Amino acid sequence: MPATRHLPTLRLSLRLAPADLFGAMEWVLANARRTGLAPQQLSFDAAPQAVLHATLTAGDAGLLWLFLRRLDNGFDVELLVADVDDPDHDTMAEPAPRAASRRDLPAELMLTA
Q1: What UniProt keywords are attached to this protein's entry (predicted)?
Q2: DSSP E strand stretches across the chain
């Protein structure tokens, strides 16, 4: 039986704009697909705020960080938590460029590798 390869994994939580929840979810999922990510788990909390929780994998951790940078350019989503697990590297990777500086409450944002 061959050993199972552990893929780089991104666990994240996103607050979605209430004006167009389906549009915001579609934008996030379409960008994940275009980036080459595979969904492992998705859940959605509608109350008290619309929050999408996702676990995504990729063949290369660089794709996960690219996706985070793309999320940073979105205007209908707010990144709350992002945790990148890269089995090939134990070092901290750089967070999305504007993720921490763009938030009003930096304590709400947690980027880890």
Answers
A1: Plasmid
A2: 9-16, 38-45, 51-57, 77-85, 110-112
